[in-house]
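re: the backbone from monday

yeah here it is again, tokenized this time
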């Protein structure tokens, strides 16, 4: 029994010492109403410029959300650079299958890769991404959270 406990403690310590090759953060949308001027931003550090990364938008919404998609404007700023913007049409549902992603009761979460493949971060340092909604409705109702997830490709 003591051997099993020692092995479990050692395994736990090795896992806890491993670096996490991931950034994920979400911002809550107040009162489930996303206004144009609510622009969550996410800042993280990149030290490994030799690796490639997958970038995901994470979005939580209720079943009452009125559209099959959402248009987002993604701002990205690299160290020592100006901010660059790109518009993204994120599909949230299909007519045949309903809501994409995972759901519990009336809340659904989608995690969508927003790059055609893994991308490099060419400079070490602080990166900032911002996400705004650019739908024709203001405020955009029934959005709970929006976030960014960065995964290092192994």
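seq for it, each position gets an aa:
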């Amino acid at each position: 029994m003591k051997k099993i406990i020692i092995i479990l403690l050692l395994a736990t310590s090795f896992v806890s010492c491993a670096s996490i090759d991931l950034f994920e953060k979400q911002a809550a949308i107040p009162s489930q109403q996303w206004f144009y001027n609510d622009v969550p931003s996410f800042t993280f550090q990149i030290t490994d410029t030799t690796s490639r990364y997958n970038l995901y938008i994470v979005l939580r919404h209720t079943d009452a959300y009125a559209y099959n998609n959402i248009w987002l404007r993604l701002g990205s700023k690299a160290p020592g650079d100006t901010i660059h913007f790109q518009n993204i049409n994120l599909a949230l549902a299909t007519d045949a299958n309903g809501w994409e992603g995972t759901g519990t009761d009336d809340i659904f979460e989608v995690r969508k890769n927003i790059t055609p493949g893994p991308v490099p971060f060419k400079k070490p340092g602080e990166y900032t991404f911002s996400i705004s909604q650019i739908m024709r409705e203001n405020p955009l109702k029934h959005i709970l959270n929006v976030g960014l997830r960065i995964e290092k490709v192994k």
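The CA atoms of residues 76 and 129 lie 4 Å apart. The mean pLDDT is 89.
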